[in-house]
């Protein structure tokens, strides 16, 4: 059962749309529809279709009349770790020749003019060293856990401010560490 990868009460987002966040309220079959299903109660009603009932049967209780929907496990994401989100947001990659060739605008005479990213090298150099990162934002990136062990501390040892808006964390525990 593919739905086993999920659990009741787990925070999820729609695959491909980390801004559409909800909570798993049901795991199992849905009458008249083969396969595994998850009942999700979407935050702020984010496009739900019902209240946890379908065809006269109540599967779960949703927060609103149209805040819930059923989804296949493959249509949902359980999220990524915080270190992975930081790497995804702040990684710096060199552009390929093809990508560089695609960086252009059209002039008023409809001639192709290359775009130069002013300060690009300076920004890339600064972001390459995550040790220097003191403030970061991973808003709406589907963060669901802090990740294994000391990975975050080792990745961004000087991080002091972190924006976690719109992520999948359902609990937060403050820990104090004495180094």
UniProtKB/TrEMBL annotation:
Keywords: Chaperone, Cytoplasm, Leucine-rich repeat, Repeat. Residues 28-72 form the CAP-Gly domain. Transmembrane segments: none annotated. Gene3D superfamilies: CAP Gly-rich-like domain (2.30.30.190), Ribonuclease Inhibitor (3.80.10.10). InterPro entries: CAP-Gly_dom_sf, CAP-Gly_domain, LRR_dom_sf. Pfam families: CAP_GLY (PF01302). Coiled coil: none annotated. It is found in: Cytoplasm. GO terms for cellular component: cytoplasm. It comes from the Eukaryota. Supercomplex made of cofactors A to E. Cofactors A and D function by capturing and stabilizing tubulin in a quasi-native conformation. Cofactor E binds to the cofactor D-tubulin complex; interaction with cofactor C then causes the release of tubulin polypeptides that are committed to the native state. Belongs to the TBCE family. This is Os05g0105300 protein.
